[in-house]
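[Discussion] Sanity-checking designs against the backbone

I'm trying to build intuition for which residues belong where. Below is a structure token string of 105 positions. I'd appreciate it if someone posts a full sequence so I can compare it with mine line by line.
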């Protein structure tokens, strides 16, 4: 989990199967950030701070150093959910460019 100030707080250990995307937990690692909603607490909105974005890229880089060029996807690609309140490939169009084609959806 990435806090507003960019601090990364570890939840479930990577070696344990997550509970973040039904049917996709076995071969994935969930990353979440605090925010993603309007001030009403319900309406989806990309509220990621610069500190959160920097922490996200650092975390993705660290995970790719451990696991190879794994693809990055939003929860909203697998379920009828708004999170992360943006479309990953629209916000970061080159994030999966170096991922082998067999690993892309």
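Best answer:
Here's mine. Compare freely.
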């Amino acid at each position: 989990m990435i806090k507003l100030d960019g601090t990364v707080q570890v939840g479930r250990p990577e070696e344990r199967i997550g509970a973040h995307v039904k049917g996709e937990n076995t071969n994935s690692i969930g990353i979440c950030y605090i925010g993603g909603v309007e001030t009403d607490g319900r309406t989806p909105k990309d509220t990621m701070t610069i500190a959160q974005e920097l922490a996200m890229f650092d975390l993705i880089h660290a995970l790719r150093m451990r696991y190879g060029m794994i693809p990055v996807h939003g929860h909203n690609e697998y379920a009828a959910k708004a999170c992360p309140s943006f479309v990953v490939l629209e916000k970061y169009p080159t994030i999966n460019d170096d991922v082998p084609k067999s690993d892309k959806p």
